[in-house]
Amino acid sequence: MSEPQDDREAATAEQVNDAQLGEPELPGRGAELVAPELTEKEQHAAETLFGDRLDLAKQYVGHLCSTGIEHGLLGPREVPIMWSRHVLNCAVLAPELQEGSTVADVGSGAGLPGLALAIARPDVEFILIEPMERRVEWLSTVVQDLGLDNVQLIRARAEEVTDEVMADVVTARAVTGLKKLLPLTVPLLDDDGELMLIKGRSARGEIAAAGKSFSKHKLANPTVELLGEGLLEEPSTVVRARRRSAGPR
Ligand SMILES: C[S@@+](CC[C@H](N)C(=O)[O-])C[C@H]1O[C@@H](n2cnc3c(N)ncnc32)[C@H](O)[C@@H]1O
Q1: Residue 173: CATH number of its domain
Q2: HEC states along the chain?
Q3: Where is it localised (predicted)?
Q4: In total, how many domains does the chain have?
Q5: Which protein residues touch ligand 1 with a CB less than 6 Å away?
């Protein structure tokens, strides 16, 4: 199975959240990587979103800030903003998911948003699709350590698993621009399924650039929603679009 030569080959300049991810550099010798303390506002948001699974979320952040950085999944500059910009930014999708549903996360990387959501919603099944071997190995270690039984990991590109994955919701963050993201995500959607794509401020521009791609992929008109308003310092911008049901044949 082919693997992107470099993450940034797949994650092109058009992706909005690239800047959030920082440079995937390894920490300097002797660098201390400590999970950041939650601010009062973050603590409130984390309690609201993770409830009695907050300790698991802290364990995940501990992994992100130690082995996640050591393995180059995120840059060390992300440590102070690991809660706000990454984990909470993703977890705000959790209340939008329906009990018993299946979510496929395309290009999970360090588990964002897939793993953050799987911690918050043990009543939902998650399929994390990620082509890079070292990322999948790291994810597998974390899933085992956290004892999550609602996560399936698939090492593949999204376009390679259209025959085996059928989800009620497909998520993605910082994978590529909408125009290229639609052909990767829509084929994984069940009838009436919904895309929830975390985007930055360029969401509306990306929708405009995608032109007729939404209708071409049999999607209803997309909406841009701010999730986590009042809860997060900076709410998450999510592009949502539901697949038009096939209707009676
Ligand atoms: C910049 S990272 C973002 C990771 C994570 N979603 C986040 O927000 O931190 C982009 C990820 O998408 C993955 N990726 C790139 N092309 C892909 C494809 N066609 N199918 C699935 N994953 C892909 C890369 O391997 C990489 O892990």
Answers
A1: 3.40.50.150
A2: CCCCCCHHHHCCCCCCCHHHHCCCCCCCCCCCCCCCCCCHHHHHHHHHHHHHHHHHHHHHHHHHHHHHHHCCCCCHHHHHHHHHHHHHHHHCCHHHCCCCCEEEEECCCCCCCHHHHHHHCCCCEEEEECCCHHHHHHHHHHHHHHCCCCEEEECCCHHHCCCCCCEEEEEEECCCCHHHHHHHHHHHEEEEEEEEEEECCCHHHHHHHHCCHHHHCCECCCEEEEECECCECCCEEEEEEEECCCCCC
A3: Cytoplasm
A4: 1
A5: 4, 7, 10-11, 21, 106-110, 112, 129-132, 135, 157-159, 173-175, 184
